[in-house]
Amino acid sequence: MRRFSILAAVLLAGCAGTADCGPDWFSIGQRDGRINAGSQIARYAARCGGTVDEARYREGYADGFSYRPPPSW
Fold first, then answer.
1. In this structure, is residue 12 part of a structural domain?
2. CA-CA-CA-CA dihedral for 37, 38, 39, 42, to nearest 10
3. How does pLDDT run across 49-64, given as a tens digit for each residue?
4. For the chain, what is the total number of helices (H) and then of strands (E)?
5. Are 61 and 30 in contact (CB under 8 A)?
6. How many domains does the chain have?
7. Tag placement on the chain: N or C end, fewer CB within 10 Å?
């Protein structure tokens, strides 16, 4: 049973990675901006075969980042 659980987790993780390969680069950038992940363009380009709409990703990142609450120091 443990082997099955590990195998299922690995397979699901592999499938989740392809969801980040577009076509809605604005939404992907927006999600990264909301969590302040930093630009992930190079990572997506490597994983997705270099097909990243950088302009739309950057627009989405800026939009998502604007929704972040200010730091409470």
1. no
2. -80
3. 888 999 999 999 999 9
4. 4, 0
5. yes
6. 1
7. C
